[in-house]
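Still learning folds. Look over my entry:

…
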Amino acid sequence: MPSIRWETSRKVGEVSVELWETGTNKPVALVENMPLTAQKYKWKVGNSLEVGKTYTLKIKGMDDPTVKRGEGSGIDTPVSFSGKPKFYAVFIGVQEYEDKDIKDLTYPIYDAERLKNMLVEYYAFEDENIYFLKNPTRAEIIGNLDALTKSINAQNTDGNTNINLLVFYAGHGLFDRDMDRGFWLPKDAHHEGKGRTNWFSNNDLKDYISAIKTQHTLLIVDACFAGSVFEPETDTRGDVARGVQNIYKLKSRRAMTSGAMTTVADKSRFVEYLLKSLEEFAKDRKARYLTAGKLFYMFNELVPNVKGGGKQILSAEGIVQSRQVPVYGIIQGTGDRLGEFIFIKK
């Protein structure tokens, strides 16, 4: 249940506590004749408050300069945003390949669909703002990212800071040691022994992430060598201690990946625990806002016990069996300002 915290140095008398939608002439919540018995108060104001609206706290019956008016604290405080956040998402699942030397996969589209359904059902994502690409070619990936860039940037001519983007990719990934660069393999990609035809590079991806004028962009990648999207200086600690309002004000460009520079399994434990954590938070009535950093640490400890492997294309040296250790951090050089993507429950 949403709550507002306030404090006063006075412990005598009674007050009326009101919460007003800013700019209106009547309160949306009211407690009359509240006795002053402590210095700090937590007021559970019910579920009538709306995400995207700003509220003002008013204390009547006492002139005390130490009362904190119009402030809230904690992840569940519904006064953190002015203007309604809008969420876009791109889901890319590649499991069927035209090149017969590339092993087909089983679960990428299924995993992408489950994540999409979870976000639409429980969080502030709408179907009309979602791009879903099943077995796309490289040209189709680029075409959809071009369209998305134009759509979002056209809405941002007045400095709109409430547009957010989530990009999910599941499929084959590869790291080219000579170029020191990671790649996604679209449907029409060629096997690595035949050259890099139709591969989609991390540099191309970073160019789009830099160009799309969102407040927050979160990349989630379930593919081998997904950690190659990070630079060596990446911050993988996350930040769950700051208040939601401060986090949201600062732009972010971050990624959450199923592994660093390793192979990962076709049947993804990374996605399983990601979905489990999102569902558990969605059913928690005490909180409404979930930062990407907190989500990562909710499931991170569960995944490293799973062994990698199973994607035979990924290395000329054969399949490498290694620990699958998820990574979360900043996508360097794309405009991150130490904010965080925030999942908002419906």
Notes: The two ends are 13 Å apart (CA to CA). Confidence is low (pLDDT under 50) at residues 62-82, 232-241, 260-264, 305-323.
